[in-house]
Amino acid sequence: MKIPLLQSEAWQKLQSELGEKTIFEKKDDYQFLAIYRSTPVGNYLYVPYGPVAKDASSFKKALKSLRVAAKENNCIFIRIEPQNPNFIKSCPDKTKKSTDLNPKETWVLDLKNKDEELKAKLPSRLLRYYKSAEKNGLSIETSHRPEDIKYLIDLQKALAREKGINTFSENYLKTELAQPFATLYIVRYHDPNETEDREAKNQKEESTNSTDEIVAAGLVFDDETTRYNLQGAQSDQGRKLHATGVLTIQLIKDAEEKNLQFFDFWGIAPENAPKNHPWAGFTNFKKTFKGEQVDYAGTYDIVLKPLKYKLYQLTRKINRLLRRA
């Protein structure tokens, strides 16, 4: 029974540090982390990528326990995201498909095969860029300092304006980076034609001069088996230098060095999605790596109070329309 990161005790700790109320239950045959959510209409429990269970029978036991917890907290519904699509058949009749929150489809690279076998799964064009990265002025560093999340945030703001997508708050990302499972990667660019002798600088000055530029950044999470490539962005200059491609190769190589078994690209557009889908470009890039598609069940709501649930859905639709306006 593989436990996804979002259903782990480490993720519960993160939620607690963010001020969220959680319910965690761990049994031999099932496990769940439920996050308490409050809305103007009423409350609900959210179980990201869960509950997790050994089989359909254990899944039903998890749902029974979740229903008890939901009633104790006066919840309208329970929002679940079981990774096993077959488990949906075991849900009660009053279960409604909801808008997917975490990706329903993702792209996963198998890292269990080493060296030449891994190289065969990496795009040859990106490997060429990776090998010439230093010559082209690119350098990659890692950080666990929460304050360094500003580099990713600045790049994401520009991407959000371009793609019309939402981003997480600075406090949320800082708290994520403070967790043991998180690592921030930063890609710097320095003009290789720059002839200034840095060694002549005063040692008290910073090691990078004013011509250095952050052109890409990425936030990854690691559990016992998998590296999840959750957050990333690059600048216009980064695109010209193929910084995201170079960074992704480094992320994969480092994951292999840690003896992780999988690299999860964290979400692709659904099959037959239109060419203008917000994730179309990301998906095309991810599929240049010779991984395989993994499909989860998606997001579903187990309705406990039908009338209030209808009111919640109506309020949600109105809020979406107002945001678009």
Outline the structure in words.
By secondary structure, the protein is of the alpha+beta class. It folds into two domains: 5-102 and 297-324, Aminopeptidase (3-Layer(aba) Sandwich), CATH 3.40.630; 105-295, Aminopeptidase, CATH 3.40.630.30. The protein contains ten helices and 14 strands. The strands form two sheets. Strands 1, 2, 3, 4, 5, 6 and 14 form a seven-stranded mixed beta sheet that branches. Strands 8-9-10-11-12-7-13 form a seven-stranded mixed beta sheet. α4 crosses α8. The model is unreliable at 202-210 (pLDDT under 50).
In short:
By secondary structure, the chain is an alpha+beta fold. It contains ten helices and 14 strands.
Please write the CATH class name of the largest domain: Alpha Beta
Q: What is the number of independent domains?
A: 2
User: Termini, distance in Å?
Assistant: 44 Å
Strands, count: 14
Q: What would CATH call the homologous superfamily of the largest domain?
A: Gcn5-related N-acetyltransferase (GNAT)
Total helical segments = 10
Structure classification: alpha+beta
Order of helices and strands: HEEEEHEEEHHEHHEEEHHEHEEH
Strand content: 15-25%
Q: Could you tell me the mean pLDDT?
A: 91
- Report the radius of gyration as a whole number of Å: 22 Å
User: What shape does the CA trace take?
Assistant: globular
CATH architecture classification of the largest domain: 3-Layer(aba) Sandwich
